[in-house]
Amino acid sequence: MIGLVDYGTGNLTSVANSLDRLKVNYFKGSTASELSVADKIIFPGIGEAKTAMDSIEKQGLTSFIRSLRIPFLGICIGLQILFEHTEERDTDCIGVIGSNIKRFDESSLKVPQIGWNKVSLKVNFPLFDGIDDGEYFYFVNSYYAPLIPETIAVTEYGVDFTSALQKDNFYAVQFHTEKSGIVGEKLLKNFIELC
User: For the domain bounded by 2-194, which CATH number is listed?
Assistant: First the structure.
C-alpha cells in the first residue's frame, strides 16, 4: 500500500489521480503513525520549501522521513527537502542528502523554469526502466539541486542540475510526474513495481 504524504500544501490530488489511473491502492496520511503502515511513501510536491518544512515539522514528520527504510519517492519540493539546506527563504531541510539547494541565476535565465525539459540518464536505474534517455518531463522550479554522487539523471537549464537522484531507499525527481503524461505515469509505475 502506498502512503501519500499529506502536509497541506502538496499537489496531492494530481498525484492521487495518477495513482487512480494506474489502479494502485494508496492512502493519504499526515502523521508518522498513519504513514508507518505504508509499504512505500510518495511525497507530492508543489510550493516552497519553508512552508513545506514548517508543515512537516509541525506534523512530526521530519525525523520519521529521515529514518525511513522503505522506498520513498519525493516529487519536486519532495526532492529539495531531502537536502541539508535550501537558499529558498534560507531554510534547513531534512538532511538525507549532504548538499544544498541553490537558486537559478535570474540575471541570465527566466525564473522559474516552467515547461518541458530533457532528462538525460546517467545510469540505467529501475526508476527509469522503459523510459528513453533524453525523454522530456514537465518542470516548475526556481531552485535546483547541484550534481552530486547520488544524481541519476541530469537536466540543463543555465546549469546542469540533478533532475533525479537515488540514495539507498530514497528516490526523488525535480520534475512533476503527475504533469508529465505517459512518461510521468511510467516512472510512478516503476517506483511502485520495481523500487
Answer: 3.40.50.880
